[in-house]
Specification:
By secondary structure, the chain is α+β, with helices and mostly antiparallel strands. It is built from 7 helices and 20 strands.
Length: 393
């Protein structure tokens, strides 16, 4: 082809006059692993972003108070993620070494809020690791940070990416993103937008929640601070992150978080959103949120269902279906076990994802009563069901 012909072809493609593929959507035929069992596992709930007294900007929040509340509300796992810059990276001899960092009923993970000049992230693992190494490379190039992260074998999550402390590193570094931060649902528009952008790019990236709670209830009036009111509004589990783990272990929690079998609810007592799909049309679900498969070219049935004891039988719940970052359907469901079905036909060789958001009557959280007004009618959300996402991306 002559240079002139090549130039003309480029202009035509840019002008949309020839058949250029849809931006970021057309993929080669990826080789996908089989979908894991939908029954071999257990739903576990917890919080992955909380600050104790080891963070200098907290108040009245010793480790014992946080864990006691987590135990009271039935949490299965917990990460106290104190600011690593407040202890110059030495979380191992501060939060992790705190004699109060123990529980007989709650699985405690190890991590910290990686607090840098370019935003915040949560580093976490099932066992202690050398967090100092991650802290020490915070000002290095992303490729060096990626090397250290891989060597440490940790899960890294982008915290509140749509806020003033936006995550300004490459999202290739992270395994998940904090889509829902704190009880104030209205403040998460930017976080959700960035999450959808990452999904549209082809990243199989888990959306998780995190309360980012800093303040506990003062034991005496003298201990009260100007921010003590937050204890009754934003505390452990506002929101709550649910993971479908293969076992009741810390490593299974981290693996489930990475794999994306995750839902988020407004608080520990709110119903959990379960999102499944019937890929082969036999009337039984064979995919859940977080799963990735090749579409058949035929219509696929999807189901949204609420699970939990706090479902209001007389209520009507609204389901918003998001497809590839855009509104796809608005549905309603009700009853003792609310559920609703919808059908769509994802293209055989196009990258596609679906996720859902559910609104309904707020669920009371007696220990944190002010959180209901802040989360409003936002009850919970799912992670996506994916089609044709390349696992090597």
């Amino acid at each position: 082809m002559s240079l002139r012909a090549l130039a003309v072809a480029v202009v035509l493609v840019l002008a949309g006059l020839v058949g250029a593929p849809a931006f970021g959507r057309q993929d080669p035929d990826p080789k996908l692993p089989p979908v894991a069992s939908l029954t071999d596992g257990v739903w576990m709930k917890g919080d992955l972003h909380i600050h104790s007294r080891h963070s200098k900007d907290s108040s009245n929040n010793p480790v014992r108070k946080i864990i006691a509340l987590a135990e009271t509300v039935g949490m299965d796992y917990l990460l106290i993620s104190d600011h690593d810059n407040h202890v110059l990276g030495d979380v191992a001899h501060n939060t992790w070494a705190d004699p109060e960092y123990a529980s007989k009923s709650v699985i405690l993970l190890y991590g910290a809020e990686w607090t840098t000049h370019r935003g915040h992230g949560t580093a976490l693992a099932a066992r202690p690791y050398d967090h100092q190494r991650l802290y020490d490379v915070a000002d290095e190039r992303d490729v060096e940070i990626a090397r250290v992260k891989k060597a440490l074998g940790i899960h890294l999550s982008a915290n509140h990416p749509g806020t003033r402390d936006a995550f300004a590193f490459s999202f290739d570094l992270v395994d998940s993103v904090e889509a829902w931060q704190s009880a104030v649902w209205a403040n998460n528009v930017g976080n959700m937008h960035i999450w959808d952008d990452m999904l549209k790019s082809g990243r199989h990236m888990t959306g998780r929640g995190g309360s980012d709670s800093h303040h506990g209830y003062p034991d005496t009036p003298e201990q009260k601070t100007p921010l003590s009111y937050q204890a009754a509004e934003n505390n452990v589990g506002t929101p709550t992150t649910w993971v479908f783990a293969k076992a009741r272990t810390g490593q299974a929690v981290v693996d489930a978080l990475t794999n994306g079998r995750v839902a988020i609810s407004a608080n520990p007592f709110s119903p959990r959103v379960e999102f499944t799909a019937d890929l082969d049309g036999d009337g039984r679900a064979d995919m859940m949120q977080g799963d990735n498969a090749k579409p058949t070219g035929k219509p696929i049935g999807f189901r949204v269902q609420l699970a939990g004891k706090s479902v209001v039988t007389a209520a009507t719940y609204t389901v918003r279906v998001i497809k590839d970052g855009q509104p796809f359907a608005k549905l309603q469901m009700s009853g003792a076990t609310p559920s609703v079905d919808f059908t769509d036909t994802p293209a055989p060789r196009v990258r596609t994802y679906y996720r859902v958001e559910v609104e309904g009557p707020p669920t009371p959280y007696p220990q944190v009563p002010g959180s209901m007004a802040l989360s409003g009618n936002m009850l919970g959300l799912s992670n996506p069901i994916y089609f044709n996402f390349d696992p090597k991306f």
